[in-house]
Structure formats: C-alpha cells, structure tokens
Specification:
This protein has ten helices and 13 strands. With about 325 residues, the protein is of the alpha/beta class. Helix 6 links the parallel strand 3 and strand 4 (about 150-155). Helix 2 packs across helix 3 (about 50-55) and helix 2 packs across helix 5.
Length: about 325
C-alpha cells in the first residue's frame, strides 16, 4: 500500500538521475535506499572508502558510486570528504542511527526465520479443534518429540473454518480439523474417525438405554456448537438423515460447555467422547445413522515446508487410524 505524499517543501527530481523528490511514494524511496544501507554503514564505520570496500568485498569504485547516488537520492550530504577519508556530517550521523537500527532488525528477522527452519530446533505452527486439545494433541506432540525433542510448537485452538483461514493467511503450517476440507488451494488427508454420542441428562427418559436411534431424539431440545463449526454442520446433517431438523435452544463454542448445559437439563447434544467422564450426563451410542466425524490434517497446496514442518507432517500421516486415543 502506497503511503501519503509529502508535499511541503516541493523538491523536483532531476532528469539526470538526481534527488528523489520528497513527494515520491514511500515505496519508491525504500526501494532506492534499502540496497545501499549496508554500504553506507560500512563506510561510516571505517570513515574510509578503501577499508570499507575491503570489508564489504566490493570494488572501491562501486562503493564510491553507491554513496554518491545515495546522497543524490536523499538530496543531503552524508559525508565530508578528504581524499579517501570521509567523516559523517550531522545529517549523516542522524541517518546512520536509523540505518543501523534497520539493519539490526533485518539481521534479527533473518536469524528468526533461519531458527524456525532449523531441522532440530525449528518451529511448527499447528492448529487443532478445541475437542482435540485436552488429550489428542498433547499425546501427539509427546510422541513426536521422542525423536525431535527440541522442535518448538506454536499451538492454536479454534474451529475448523477459522483455522482454514489462518492456514491461507500463512499463520499456520498444518491444522487438524473436521470435516476434512475439500478446497482447490488445500491438501487434506483423512487420518481417523471419531464416534459421536447422543449426550442426555442422567434423569432423561433415554438415560437407561445404551444405544439409541437418532430419530428417537427428534422431539428433544438440542444444544449445539455455533454455525460455522464443523461439528455443528455434522450435527445438522445427521439429524437431517434421521428425518428431522434439530430444535436448538443453546449454541456454544466448546464441547464441554455443551456437556454442562446437558447436565443442567437444558437439552441433548451430539458430541465426541470426553477426555474425562462428566457427572450428570449419560452418553449413548447412536446406531442410526452412523454418527461419526472424520478427522484430517490440512495444509496449503504448493506451500514449501521447513524441515520441522515436513517431519511433523510425515509423523501425522504415519498415525492414520491411530490418531485418537482408544
């Protein structure tokens, strides 16, 4: 995005390759100045063109021309010259302070991306569903770190659509989600499936049963996740296959919150098994329709993997059919 023009005072660009006008766009100024900052800092550090050229590994003539062009572009004298010896002008000292900060920031950024890509100590940005957070993901990471003990993780819990958007934005390397996405810009692999149960209050008319057809809950009030969540779409689809549209009283963002609402007698819910049994509810096997959700891993098509991301992706794919705790 182009920045606002600076119009006071007006200075015109010379046709022979002189100053950049002060009303040039910021992008143009940065493009012109950025490649010369390291040269400028080297000359300023040595106060000698020949010694700076030797340290930087460039011909002295190239360095001299770059400094002249830098001053022309800025329209300011940065150096006072005495032969090959130079000293900074007041403007040069001001410019040097900012140039050194900019170069230091570039160096930090370069070190950061190199560190994140290191095969042994790099970083993986990994997204997953809230329902995977208490048991599944910690177990996966523990198993992966047996062979990769120093790989770091940035972990993001969210619902499926939000994770896919973060994947597309480059904020995630991989995400564990459901349903398994089908989009031309993504690669997705099915890893496992998880049975869903009809969760009812312990004093519910169906609580004495072990199995139930979903159609038997057609007249019940449901508590569900909000629209946009994968489990909500699966719930709506299963209810439609059972011949009814669920009457939804409460919508939430986490499965365990929904279990609490069920325990309070506020409805029934279709949910994956809990990590720890919740008092106050009974969880029934749904015999028809087949109530499962597929769990898969997704990544951006054509996006190059760093070594730690490639290793973790291969590890996840090796867990097909064994992803979820028994």
């Amino acid at each position: 995005m182009r920045g606002p023009a600076i119009i006071d005072p007006p200075v015109h660009k010379q046709s022979s390759g002189g100053w950049l006008s002060l009303n040039s766009n910021e992008e143009d100024i940065v493009t012109a100045l950025a490649p010369r900052l390291a040269y400028f800092a080297g000359v300023a550090r040595h106060e000698h063109v020949t010694r700076a050229a030797q340290e930087l590994g460039v011909p002295q003539s190239t360095l001299s021309r770059a400094m002249v062009r830098l001053e022309e572009d800025l329209g300011v004298a940065l150096f006072a010259r005495r032969g090959r010896t130079v000293s900074l002008t007041p403007a040069g000292r001001t410019f040097l302070a900012s140039a050194e900060r900019a170069l230091a920031e570039v160096a930090r950024a370069a070190e950061s991306v190199r560190s994140d890509a290191d095969p042994a100590t790099g970083k993986v940005a990994f997204g997953f569903l809230h329902t995977m957070g208490s048991e599944t993901v910690p177990g996966l990471i523990r198993a992966f770190r047996v062979d990769h003990p120093r790989v770091r993780f940035t972990l993001v819990q969210n619902y499926g659509e939000a994770m896919i958007e973060r994947l597309r934005a480059g904020e995630l390397d991989l995400c564990l989600t459901s349903p398994v996405p089908d989009a031309p810009d993504l690669v997705a692999r099915r890893l496992d499936e998880q049975r869903l149960r009809l969760v009812v209050p312990e004093d519910h008319r169906l609580a004495t049963r072990r199995r139930v057809r979903l159609a038997e809950a057609a007249d019940e009030t449901f508590v569900t996740l909000e629209p946009g969540y994968g489990l909500r779409r699966i719930t709506d689809d299963l209810c439609a296959r059972a011949g009814f549209t669920p009457r939804v009283a409460f919508e939430g963002e986490e499965a365990e919150t929904l279990r609490g609402l069920v325990a309070a007698g506020l409805g029934v819910a279709l949910l994956p098994p809990p990590a720890v049994a919740r008092p106050g509810v009974v969880e029934l096997t749904v015999t028809a329709p087949r109530a499962v959700r597929e769990i898969g891993v997704a990544w951006l098509d054509g996006h190059p993997d760093t070594p730690p991301v490639a290793a973790f992706k291969a590890f996840l794919l090796s867990r097909r059919g064994q992803l979820l705790p028994v």
